Amino acid sequence: MNYNPSLYEINTRVFVKRFGAETKITNVPPVFWNELAEKGIDYVWLLGIWKTSDEVIEKYCFEDDLVNSYKRALRDFKKEDVIGSPFSIDVYDVNPKLADADSLIELKSFLNSRGIKLILDFVPNHFGAGTSLLKTHPEIFLQVDEESFLKDPHTYFKPFAGKEIYFAHGRDPFFPSWQDTIQINIFSKDAREFLTDTLLRLTDVCDGVRCDMAMLLLNNVFKNTWIGALSKNHFHLHEKEFWSEAISAVKNKRADFIFIAESYWDMEWELQQLGFDFTYDKKLTDRLRTGYVKDICEHLLAEESYQKRSLRFIENHDEERAAASFGKEKSKAAAIIISTIQGMRFYHDGQLEGKKIKLPVQLGREPEEFFPNGIHDFYDRLFSITQEKTFKHGNWKLLRPGPAWEGNISHNNMLAWEWNYNDEKRVVVVNYSESVSVSLLKLDVSGYPENFELLDLLNDQTYIRSSEEVYHTGLYIELKPWQAHILKY
Predict the structure, then answer these.
(1) How far apart are the first and last CA of the chain?
(2) How far is CA 280 from CA 222, 252, 262, 309, 420, in A?
(3) Is residue 140 in some structural domain?
(4) Which domain holds residue 450?
(5) What is the per-residue pLDDT across 416-449, written as a single tens digit (0 to 9) for each?
(6) What DSSP designation does 402 have?
(7) CB 53 within 8 Å of CB 122
(8) Domain boundary residue among 393, 416, 449?
(9) Is the model's pLDDT at 471 over the cut of 70?
(10) Which of 129, 288, 380, 460 is least surrounded by Cβ atoms within 10 Å, i.e. has the fewest?
């Protein structure tokens, strides 16, 4: 596995329609996948490949807030555009509208032959509220009594008419429940075995899983979220964490299978210790959006092992589009940052074109958009640089830009770091501000000729500088707002 691989997310149910209304993911032209390989993409995440609980759409997918989000994304929104959440899974069988089991494995083999590995969804906290597993495996879900249901019919529900059986909807403790889902009881031995068996089966059809809301399954989080229901059912805190046991079992079968955690609340380190290969770095996204360079720099001082296992992104299906929330130029600067630091670099389908409209995951149709000039060309140039081994396998070091003269403080707007791989060196400098900024950057150029060449790979410029001056005084850098150098020397 690459030390600093890249991941590309695709909203599968929407994406396939670009190639025809009835197109399946296995019929997408090979040229598309080849282009991703040429960009240096190492993993493709096909969001929404599994069979969903379509029967819950009418009941749960037309709340006022959801309908308003649909109308913001699609001015000509129609009821039939709503196809339900991809996280409201019925069972882990391939959605027949997208592929079948055999053709999905064939697609995986094709992607692998192009150097791309396949990531699929694993949603461990819940299934769809209409899942067929309620009839075959009811013991894996969080059952409650009638009193709980009557007190809080938003969090709890009665799935079967005529049967006085009640269950919890899935939820995040800080928000109302997701009513189109049913909560798994991770304190149930049956549930743990069922989920682990599911993961073991997935090792045959993909190369890794992106685990939705992974921190919700941590023992203390689950206990605190559901303490009332658990106490009535006499469930007790487990000694071991589910993730530790499940990941260990899967890695024993297939060591190269990777686990990616969607994670928040500063629980990323804990999840990494339990075996996750990569965890979301939402804090960096927020700091990049806010734009305080000091906070970004401090974030990049974290322990190296933590950084290498962090997933860096500026947008995904849950976030606002970067071109809209950052703005065009700032989003490009942020993209340079997440593409040239340690960790897994994470890109969202549409990001490379500068799409601005966030699509609710319940929609099966995307709007037509006109893309900003230059974004696509910018990403092409960026990927041509960052797919090099220097950025994939090299050693990374944070640099400290200094003032260009006494009293100058604009160097505080600069972020800089260096990559070393064999005899190759790259230096990245980003002016992450709205002002023209200058700095001096000291580089170790001992052994270089008196006058040496720096090639700016990003801007296709060549500079000749004195090695003595750069070593003792520093390399003078002047950058316009949101501009950057990626220097080879």
Answers:
(1) 27
(2) 20, 24, 5, 9, 26
(3) no
(4) 395-488
(5) 999 999 989 999 999 999 999 999 999 999 889 9
(6) B
(7) no
(8) 393
(9) yes
(10) 460
